[in-house]
Design goal:
The protein is α+β, with helices and mostly antiparallel strands and 102 residues long. Helix content is 25%, strand content 40%. It contains 3 helices and 5 strands. Strands 1-5-4-3-2 form a 5-stranded antiparallel beta sheet.
């Protein structure tokens, strides 16, 4: 179980917004994001609720040199998957890399 507090990761954050044209559901977006980032879901956010049009996915993990990182993704499905990805860690360049890698 991945538990990382925002205090332990530092205050640096990067954000980016995307539209995923090849993903056709919230469930599909959640599965692909977990696989893509290779991080652990937090607070059971890997589970989506049937009939909902939005979801928040929280991920935590460690990257180069053991830097702890949190990712928060706000996902909305309205015929297409739109999402805002926020990465937070002590390393601003890692945050930028994570949010721009999609």
């Amino acid at each position: 179980k991945a538990v990382v507090s925002t205090q332990s990761t530092g205050d640096s954050q990067a954000d980016e917004t995307y539209t995923l044209t090849t993903v056709k559901s919230l469930e599909g977006a959640v599965e692909q994001l977990i696989s893509f980032f290779g991080m652990q879901p937090c607070e059971r956010t890997e589970r989506t609720t049937e009939g909902k049009s939005s979801h928040i996915l929280l991920l935590a993990g460690q990257y180069k040199d053991g830097v702890e990182c949190l990712i928060k993704t706000k996902i909305v499905y309205d015929g297409a998957v739109n999402m805002k990805v926020s990465a937070r860690s002590a390393d601003p360049s890692l945050n930028e890399l994570l949010v721009s890698s999609i």
